[in-house]
Fold:
Amino acid sequence: KNQVEQSPQSLIILEGKNCTLQCNYTVSPFSNLRWYKQDTGRGPVSLTIMTFSENTKSNGRYTATLDADTKQSSLHITASQLSDSASYICVVSDGGSTLGRLYFGRGTQLTVWP
Amino acid sequence: EADIYQTPRYLVIGTGKKITLECSQTMGHDKMYWYQQDPGMELHLIHYSYGVNSTEKGDLSSESTVSRIRTEHFPLTLESARPSHTSQYLCASSDHNEQFFGPGTRLTVL
Structure:
């Protein structure tokens, strides 16, 4: 069964600290993996997208890694800010069509305290 | 910021009412989607469209219906709302590589 599991479910950190969010998937075939940031009451916004051959990709203070062999990905946030408080969603595409079918994780709810 | 819009942003209605959630995009995308999301849960695809006059049901069974008469417009309709329809509804459109989401409509049915 194609699934995307994220951990932890929720996380609280102090402003300025780093954190790492995890994503494990069983989706096959694999096309790409995306990380989205979803602010409360808003739609998800794309942070990174990685294909099979990419191991790491950065977007400012966000760095995503991908290990396609173990089917694991992580999102590392450096020097957290209050505005980083949001849900971070891991999404895996199976590449069945041009965009592929998307499998969504439940997200990690990150809270950054001052 | 993606050019995809949803109205209303918030809606509180009584049981049995007919409602239409609006979604429009100005990016010229052929593919559009509707998702349902409950708090702390993953997004569930309820409808999608590959272009004008194309509509398909998604993975999650839904009593809603959609139409795609124009490329930029993909409204979702509930003929008779029930409390079980209370949820957040997210519209999205995509090009070949990326999916862009609207801000969502938070629907509450009393």
Notes: Chain B has a mean pLDDT of 93. The first strand of chain B starts at residue 4 and ends at 7. Chain B has no helices and eleven strands.
